[in-house]
Amino acid sequence: MTSNDINAINNVLPAGKSGNRVQWIELVKEQVKNEGLMGMTCAAYSSKRIDNIVEKTQCVCGRHVREHSYTGTPKTELANAEQWVDEHADLVPVTVFGQLTNGAQFIRCSTENNAFQKLISMIVKNVGSEPRLIVSCYGGAEYFTMKDSLEREFMNGIGQVAATKNVWILTTGLNSGVSMLIGQGVHRRKALHDNTWDPVVIGMSSWGSIAECTRVILKEQ
User: What is the bridge-based pairing of β-strands 133-136 and 39-42?
Assistant: First the structure.
């Protein structure tokens, strides 16, 4: 997490320590209605113009060409680029958001143009209180190994941290590496202890890094 992101959090936190929780879906709908949040997707290919594309052709965004949802005019001049650049993306309405059966809330949106500040404000309203400590756990997303004894200590420790009131944990949200261990540690802590404070674990990743099966589930909510 960059210093600019941390400053953004500090700028949007309310003065009060706690308050009434606001439902996540209602918060998102309000922002979408007021155009406070916009989505962003790869525009190198359009779902309406992929008839002549080989099925397994992969875009620089990480997805197969046929997995693109963009319906506008594709930026064909960027289709063969070897590296992702901001120009690949285009703003679109926010359509992917909601809450899973396990209680996890999600949204797919752009974080540009002060959207990050709006997101943090929404999370504070949804949680009902501001964070006193933010723990950022990134790295080790794939090739991550740890001895069993150390892994248990890590899971116990992160579970205890997550159970502490007004502590937020930031991860990639992916089911691999450090992020997976954090999820397991938090789940284990909740299962074994009766805590009045619901852990706040926030996963932030690019849409292309999420497994296709997960993207389908999120779109259907």
Answer: unpaired
